[in-house]
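In response to the reviewer comment on reproducibility (Comment 2.3), we provide here a single inverse folding case reported in full, input and output, so that an independent group could reproduce the run without further information from us. The structure tokens appear first.
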């Protein structure tokens, strides 16, 4: 098997490792290995020292370009990603069990949650304003929002 194919196999392995362990910079090494593999296929007599030098140079170039990319286009982390309740705030839901005396249940998605808020009949639309200890705090919609 030619050296170029070994480099391409290494590139594929590094790319798959990046998918399995996200957040590591293996993708940049995979790019460098792929470029070195193509060069080794195009130039079959390329010595091992030149292949290793190519891999080193292209690794550095890929890392510099990748760092620059992530500096110019940062990935915004969603603070609510692993907090389902934070994602519910602002959602309009329907009252499932009437809110009487400030307590009842609302339908959120395919389930119901205990709710606290102003009295409301079953089927009324309300907005979630907070979630405290597994209890959804709701407020009635104003007339303009109902239309």
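Designed residues, in position order:
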């Amino acid at each position: 098997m030619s050296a170029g194919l070994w480099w391409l196999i290494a590139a594929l392995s590094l790319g798959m490792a990046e998918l399995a362990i996200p957040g590591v910079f293996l993708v940049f090494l995979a790019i460098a290995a792929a470029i070195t593999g193509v060069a080794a296929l195009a130039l079959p007599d390329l010595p091992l020292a030149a292949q290793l030098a190519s891999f080193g140079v292209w690794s550095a170039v890929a890392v510099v370009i990748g760092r620059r990319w992530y500096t110019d286009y940062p990935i915004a982390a969603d603070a609510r990603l692993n907090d389902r309740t934070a994602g519910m705030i602002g959602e309009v839901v329907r009252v499932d069990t009437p809110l009487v005396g400030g307590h009842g249940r609302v339908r959120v998605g395919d389930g119901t949650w205990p709710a606290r808020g102003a009295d409301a009949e079953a089927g009324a639309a309300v907005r979630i304003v907070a979630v405290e200890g597994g209890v959804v705090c709701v407020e009635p919609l104003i007339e303009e929002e109902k239309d």
